[in-house]
Write a structure and sequence with these properties.
By secondary structure, this protein is of the alpha/beta class. The protein contains 19 helices and 15 strands. The strands form 3 sheets. It has an 8-stranded mixed sheet with strand order 1-15-14-13-2-5-6-7. Strands 8-9-10-12-11 form a 5-stranded mixed sheet. The protein has a two-stranded antiparallel sheet with strand order 3-4. α10 crosses α11 (227-250). The two termini are 27 Å apart.
Amino acid sequence: MAVQTGRAARSHPMLPPVFDDAGELAALPRNLERWPVHEDHSGGNAGAVRDSLIAAASHGTWTWPEKPVVFISDPHADADGFLRSLVSAGAVRRLNDGFVLTPFGRMAKIIVGGDCLDKGPSNLDMLNALKRLFDLGADVRLLAGNHDLRLRLAIRALTLPKAPLTEHLFVRMGRKILPLLAEINTRYVTPEDLACLPDEAECRERIFPSSSWKATFPAAAGPYLTPLGIEKELKKLKKKAKQFAKQADAEGLTMREVYAASLRCRDLFLSPDGAYSWFYSAMDVVEQIGSIVFLHAGIDDTMCALLAKDGPAAVNTRYRLEAEDDPFAFYSGPVANLVRTKYRPVDGQLTASGVALLHQAGIKMIVQGHVNNHKGQRILAKNGLLHLEGDITLDRTSRRLEGLTGIGAGATLIFPSGDVVGLSSDYPRVKHFKPEHHL
């Protein structure tokens, strides 16, 4: 993909023109190569990919989207990384005061694969950029990520009466949302809000689990977790409570300010008329287009069965119902597994039976975020099911911690022709996948 400032340009007819007026994408790759699935940075197991393709092919040919799809995941509160990625995909053109859709952006479906929140530099700037994309009339699908649900569940748990299954969840999930709470405190919390709250000690007591929680949690969690899982949760909470207090101090927040910002978050995000209520209202957990399912993390046999039998609408309906129910039961169950699994033993399991159900239903590949990479996207078979990992480390906080420079940019594009391309400013070529190339 050729990139020039001030006008659109391209070097391969498959790729849409890119408008890089600001000259931010000099590192964007310009030439295609066959997806190197044999290389660790791009998959690492060509044999397993071939086996998965053969198994899927026994149930019919691929069905591709009717219009181009742009998949961008895990912007993690970095609006610049998100917008640069949209530019790199040819979907938007940035202007001094915002951005507009390009002709390609108006015709494409844009799927945001989750984890819009946390890390930084600004959650609210990221949300405002995403809202602008909706307001421009783009065909956008927003999927839930574990970091997005962390805010929702933490705020709900904090505002429920104390109970063994929920009173620890705010501290359990809350450390990573503290940067957002700091933004909310600065922009939205008023002196009048603080004046209505109890003192520091009482706010701390409302935020942290009660002294009896450690004794009451195991019996309450029994229906949802194994004994090993319960033991792990108890140990994890002890560690996270210390981390939470330390992080709140690093953000310059008292417990009264944490509590006030959390209540304001409830109004902004969870109330029907809140300024950011659209965020969770627009959010689903899966999107299926032809032979491809888009989600944040992965899938287990339970969700394979529901998806194969009743389709993505049934999965999204179950998500919406359960997300409003008990926060602990929801986050411990198979629906939330879609946003947090890494196919570890503690996660919901994907077996050959679940993979066979998807193949029989014509589903041949998962496109996901959640697992971040440093040299662009990867394609690999996980438990026999083809996965494309599309998290290419966009946010500058992660990049700085992981030894990458600057702000990330890139996207996964899927075309009606059956061509899949992976763009990343951290890899020197555009990766090109076509199933028949790897059989």
